[in-house]
Amino acid sequence: MIAWTGRKTVEGLEFAAAVLVLGLRSFRELFSPARRGRGEVFRVIASQILFTGVDALPVVGAIALMLGLIIIIQAGITLPQVGAGAFLAKIIELTLVHELGPLVTAFIVIWRSGTAICTELGNMQVGQEIAALEAMGISLIRFLVMPRVAGVIVAMVCLTIYFDFIAIVGGFLVAKVHLTIPIQVYLEEIEGALSVSDVLITVIKSVLFGFTIAVICCHHGLSVRSATTEVPQQTTRAMLHTVTACLVLDIIVSVGFYI
Amino acid sequence: MSEAVITLDRVSASDGDQTLVEDISFTVQRGEAVALVGSNASGKGLVLRLCAGLEAPASGTVRVLGADLASATEEQLLALRQRVGFVFAKPALISSMTVFDNVALPLRYHAVVPESEVQERVLAHLTECGVAAFRDRMPADLMLGVARQAAIARAMVMDPDILCVDEVLLGLDADDLVRLRKILEQYRRAGRPTIVATINAPTSLLRVMDHLVLLRDGRLIAACPPGEAALVVDPMVQEFFGSQ
Description:
The structure holds two protein chains of two kinds. By secondary structure, chain A is mostly helical. Chain A has one domain (about 35-259). Chain A contains nine helices and no strands. In chain A, helix 6 (about 140-175) packs across helix 8. Chain B has a domain at about 90-160. Chain B has a six-stranded mixed sheet, sandwiched between helices. In chain B, strands 2-1-4-5 form a four-stranded antiparallel sheet, with helices on one face. Chains A and B meet through helix 2, helix 4 and helix 5 of A and helix 2 and helix 3 of B.
């Protein structure tokens, strides 16, 4: 038991170190002035933003609308019954903007793009495409990892803002049939409850989640050796690790913000 | 005066605890065509990767285009790889790109020429390898032979000093073989690039080669011109060249 715990701890630390190194190297590449591969890298970033961001708009919009509807209806009906109707905007701000917006968007991005990144890189490894890129003198960090990290971060920030907007406005419009608050009053309350730091914390979480998702999924995709059976195994591990990492980061940022 | 572009000196390489090639020494001169000949699992693929600087030796010295691979930095290795074209046994074309974009990738990434010249050079190499008609196809739609020819075009598009081809016969039909032999003969006459290829079956391509490096079980049996190979006293070599 002690040996197992020790082994798992060492494996965990090695994994964290490998992911951190990959993340730092891709971060360094992002700000590298090198001209090499710039056009190709921009193409990969653009296609990553298109896939992770633009293509995900319908599903993010639908989930945001449904979650916004549920929370606004529950809060809008229950809070006045206990004499806390004035807190509706604060509850929406805390649950939707602070927590659910970044977290649910991160889960959608993990489910759609994280799996895709891990599977794509894993299959490239099996097909010797990664080895071919190295043989051509093409940096894997610059050509494969950094554009995915940049693309997912940009998409995450945009999707989270979109999620919050749809959840707050769309959710209210749909819930309007059950509520008596005029939209003007509702929006004013929301505006009053939201501060610059609220928006900032949402953006910080989105950037951290996007970075974490892309780096962990790239790490697992590139960890595939030569068998196709390793691809789904690594993808499953990537899902587990990204969900856990995002939850841990969410706790750290939220606790840090309130302390 | 000849110049050594690849030198292996008492090289051994391993995978974990298992030694795969041992005590290999030979030299490839500029402009030569050299075949690494041996059966499957003879270690010729690993020796080829050592020659291209894609693997590090466990012991011994590998010098490619004047660079000692043991002391080369990552930047030097990246620069070296632009001068060495490598064709894997699998075509290894990037599956999300068309054949044209695959061949154009090293030119575009390394930004060596303007886009107008990229178009010209890629098309010229695709035509030379007989796959220009497939320029807009995705790799998944290609037969193995066509994909391998496209991979050769991609390896050649940077105008490398050395061309390394693993399992050169893989996926080639009779027409492909004739075309490839003509291309190799043309390169050999031009003295550029230096060619190193692995071959695991008797073929007419051996006649195009200047030297053969004969390998068995990860060890060097002999390095000699094709005409002298049949004289090498070794059961594998006798069987190989006896059946030609």
